[in-house]
User: Fold these one by one.
Assistant:
Number 1:
Amino acid sequence: MAARGIDWSTATLKREMVGHEVTVGGLLFADDHHWQNSEVDNPGGTDLWRATDIEIHPMTYLKIEDE
């Protein structure tokens, strides 16, 4: 997005989007590197920090809905 002049840096996203309803678009894929951290794929595991191993890559758009 930087090549298009759009700032998706963490600082900008936090400043612009925290507290707003946001729509995220992109492609879904199963990230096999995180199955062990997924409650769905590894129920009862010891280092669960996500619900599934599904991720959005690449993100193609972000839209603040309540503006």
Note: Residues 26 and 41 are 22 Å apart (CA to CA).
Number 2:
Amino acid sequence: MLRSRPVRFLITRIARAYGFLDPVALMANLRGFAKPSEVAEPIELLRAGMLFHARGLVNTKAIQNNLDWVWPYWVERQFNPADPSFIPRAFSFSHINLTHRNWTAVGLPDVAFYPIVDPRGLVTPLFDGWSLDFWFVPENGEAVMLPSKLSDGNVTQELRLTDNLRVRTVARFGENAADGAAPSPRVILESVVEMGFKQGEPQCRVRVQVHGGKRGAVAVALRPYNPEGVSFIKSIETMTQRSGFLVNGRNEVIFDRAPAKQLLSNYEDGDVLLRLREPLADKQVSCPVSMATAVALFPTSGEDNNTCEMRVPIYDELDARHRPSFKTTQSWSAAMTGLARLHVSDAAVQRLYDLALANTVLHAPREVYPGPYTYKRFWFRDAVFVLNALLSLGGVERTRRALQEFAPRQRMDGYFLSQEGEWDSNGEALWFYHRFASLTGETLPRDWLDAVAKGAKWISKKRLPKDGKIEGGLLPAGFSAEHLGPNDFYYWDDFWAVGGLRGAAALLRPVDPQLAEACAAEAIEFLDTIVKSFPTGPHRRFPKAIPASPHRRMDSGAVGSLVADYPLQLFTAGDEAVVKTADYLQGHCLHGGGFFQNMIHSGINAYLTLHLAQVRLRAGEARSAWELMDAAVRLASPTGQWPEAIHPLTLGGCMGDGQHIWAAAEWLMFVRNLFVREEGDDGGALVIGAGVKPEWLEAGEAVFGPTLTPWGAATVRFARAGEGSVRVKIDGEWRGAAPRREIRLPGFETADLAPGERREEVVVRGNLTESSGL
């Protein structure tokens, strides 16, 4: 519409008449920072951003003038002038969570609904909904004990997977001690959150316990907010048929027994916290500004194990009237059966692997979600990274089910569309179709191959003409992976396209040899075109490193160019340009040992840190890879999660989803590649143990597998075999002859097993003590 000259003239006249900036001129200036693109701003991101800041505007009105309310953890920290999380609010357009975007989902396999829990135990049962908080109200009139106001040292939280996935939060209040005695907590408030079923319908279940010698009551508080900010509660009723609350005339909070007291309040009368001592008897409340609050009080005896339980039936976020039901569901034990297992002495690495594996399964019920909340939607980019981990670790059927969703998203012209203007999606889809065929040994269905053919032709047609410009022959300018900067001719898109064309050539060779050869030839020519476009000349401060695009100087956006090495392997291991790029990024873009992305994210990115670690690992630089891995371990939350971007001071999430499943998938792939990595397919090799830490071997056996490879499934075991020696055992379920196996254990002699050689064990010699200092 803004391209119409009369419309632009009217907008400019109206803006000037009222003293506003001319929006037409402003947009033109803004777009001057980016390369011209057919999609200047992605509609989906604009829509998401508008919703995000709309909530932020509500937060602006609701929070700062009601600081006597109880607010979620992030508000209590971010609005506290004595806290490092504090953000001044003077000219902020909206007040949003930029310091503690952390939460953890619970759920069941194949059930696409995710109650989330914040770092202080605040539970949001329904997608983007209101929350339940849990307080302790002392009998003697002391101040209410509120977990959201506690310091980090007084709260512990963990995520566990046994028969179910559970988040346990323990808040400790009021340390006291007799003379000479160790301090003991006066009150411990513990909550456990999980997903369960009742008559086939999913429900969020919460159990709250109080320990300690203090009499009082557990307060189950209904809150009109969640970890993003305000979430409206228009009305609350106390139910008569059973104990609990009816929220907004539809959603139930069902208690296991009747509370001693239920209190309701609206916005005008203030937070229900402020009215706990009042004799309120209202059975329902309606709030004109949709900020109603309520609390149910369950008395405690002062003895241990005072327990109350509640459940919230789940509703479909796409249809607020619909309660989903499931005839059958898979148990967690069944969902995890057959997936690659890790056994190492490093408890942190072991725990993070186990939790990442469960969370990857959880977020791939059919479609793949890179997060349970902010990112609960589909992108080809995130899906491919998540599915690559899931497939590599043995999740074939779950991956197959997700891959069936790819072709229906393809347009008639061959474009794999998750959002307009992303030119990496076709390369990613084609590469992963080939990855699936390679790791499973299967022939793809005909409709999948038809999608591959159409997708390859789209790449060929989408490339720019070779007209003498530096970007000639590349894909058009776009916003690419979104964290690289303004619209540009990003190498990230081009490298993916080359990888996709290579994959298409391999897949199509049996069914369409002519198109297959065309794809193979174009992949060679395309990569050559990319390499020739790398900027050169005296203005290059870092010769031979690969920037984000041919028009960019070296900056943190160059991290996108690492995709040529991991996972695509377009260049040989240790390629000079790739290593120079990694050198630049590690020399200029690390903070606290992790990769800090200056653009868009402005935080430490665990998943990009691990991309960098993969490059170092493939180049044979194990020590550098371990340092980056250790940084990722330090950045994990207490529940073993990584937000998309991490605040460098608070170490809480500052951008994106508070539980980033792409990051979890990258952790899985990095751990896998420490033990087993493939180089190429036919004629390639398995690289064994190139990142196994010597201290893991000092402490005992290290085992990983079975993991899928292009030659079949493999399990590898490493164990000490006497002083200075390690026995390496490779259990392979090969589909044909065994591949070449290159044992590259850091600090030990190398050993190779030739293709077809049946030997499974090799003893390599070295020095464990010396190798620890590599």
Note: DSSP finds 18 helices and 32 strands in the chain.
